Amino acid sequence: MAESDKQNKTEEPTPTRLKKAREEGNVPKSQEVASALLMLGAVVIMVSYGDWMYDQFRELFRHLYLNLDQPLENRDNAIVVLSDTLRTGFTIMFPMLVVLTSVAILANVGQTGIVYAPKVLEPKGNRISPIQGFKKIFSIQGIAELVKGLSKIAIVGIIIYVTLKDEVDLFKSMMVMPVTSTLIDTGRLILLMFTRILSALIILAIADSIYTRFKHQRDLRMTRQEVKDEFKQAEGDPHLKGKRKEQALGFSRRKRLDHAVLASDVVITNPTHYSVALSYDPERSSAPVVRVKGVRKRALRIREFAREYNVPIMENPPVARALYATTGEGETVPEEHFQIIAEILAYVYRLKENEGAYGN
C-alpha cells in the first residue's frame, strides 16, 4: 500500500506544501556540509593562527616548568597556577571557539535560512517511543545513514594511512630530534592530513547536499488528488464560489452603484457628462452588458467607485453617449457597437495581464 502511494505521488510539491513542511521543521539540510565547513574553519585557524598558538603554548609550558618548585600544597599558590593556566588556555582556544561556533551557525542557516518551527517543540509520543526508535534505526534511511557514516570512517582511515605510511623514518628520528623540530613536523603532518580529509569531505558534502534536496522534494511529492484538494482549500469550493458569484450578481441587479461598478470590467466616460459601466461574462451572455449608467452627478459617482475598486476607466465620448442613449441598465450592448466594445475590453484585459505580471 505504501509503495502504491509513492507511485501515485507524481506531482511536485506546491508552495503551500513546502511552506507547511517548513513550519514543521522539515527542511533539506545536509550534516555533511556542516562537517566539511567546520573542518575548513579548523584548517583556516591552524594556518592563520598556528604560529601564534604555538608561541602561546610554549610560553604556557615554560611558565609551568619554571614554577615547578612552587609548593602546590599551599592553597594560594595552587589557585594562582591554576588561574594562569586556565586563562592562557582560554586565550589560546577563544579564536577557534568563535570561528567554529560562527561556522556551525552559518552552515545551518545558510542551507535552510532562519526556520521558525514551534511545532517541532510540541510533545509527541512517537519521539520517545522505543518501537519508533528501532524502526528509524532499521529503516532504509537509518541503514543509508549507517553506510554513509562507515564510508566516512573508511575514507578518513585510508587518508591517514596514505599520509603517514611514508613518514615512518620521520617518526623514528623524532626520538632524538629537538622538541621544537618535533612539534613543527607534527604540525605539518596534522595540517596535511586535515587538508586531504577536508578535500574528501567537501566532495562528499556537495554530493550529499544535492541528494538531500532531491530526497526532500521527492518525499514531499503529492498525488493529483492532493493537489486538487489543496487548490479547493485555497480558492474555495467551486459550489460555494458559484453561490458567492450569484450573490454578487444579485447585488449588482439592484440599483446600488457600488455593487454595479464592482461587478464591471470597464467604465466608459464622456469624460465629464456620461459614464457607462460594462461587464462581459461569456458563460452568461453572448454580448457585454451595461451594468449601470449615469449623467452628471451620477456619472461622477460611477467614476469615483471605479477608482475606489480599481475598475479601468476609458474615455470615449462617442461610445459613452451612444451606449447611454440606446442601452438600458441590464441590457446587452447593441450589435452595431460590438466591434468597438470588443477592442476596448481586449485593451482592458491586456492592461490587467500586464499589471498581474509586474505584480508577480
Tally of strands: 4
Q: Report the radius of gyration as a whole number of Å.
A: 38 Å
| Overall outline | elongated
Order of adjacent strands in the largest pleated sheet: 3-2-1-4
Can you give the mean pLDDT?
Answer: 78
Instruction: Sketch the topology as an H/E string, one letter per element.
Output: HHHHHHHHHHHHEEEHEHH
**Number of helices, where a helix is a run of at least 4 consecutive DSSP H or I residues:** 15
Unreliable residue runs: none
Estimated structural class: mainly alpha
Biggest sheet layout: 4 strands, mixed
Strand residue percentage: 5-15%
- Terminal CA distance reads 40 Å
Number of domains: 2
Specify the helix fraction band. over 70%
Keywords: Bacterial flagellum biogenesis, Bacterial flagellum protein export, Cell membrane, Cell projection, Cilium, Flagellum, Membrane, Protein transport, Transmembrane, Transmembrane helix, Transport
Membrane topology: Multi-pass membrane protein
Protein name: Flagellar biosynthetic protein FlhB
Family: Belongs to the type III secretion exporter family.
Give a description of the structure.
This protein has 360 residues and is mainly alpha-helical. It has 15 helices and four strands. The protein has two domains: 1-114 and 160-233, no CATH class; 242-358, name from scop, CATH 3.40.1690.10. It has helices at residues 2-8, 15-23, 31-66, 75-112, 125-128, 130-137, 140-164, 168-173, 179-219, 224-235, 238-253, 257-262, 297-308, 317-326, 338-359; strands at 266-269, 274-279, 289-295, 313-315. Helix 3 runs antiparallel to helix 4 (75-112), helix 3 runs antiparallel to helix 9 (179-219) and helix 7 packs antiparallel against helix 9 (179-219). The two termini are 40 Å apart. It is a multi-pass membrane protein.
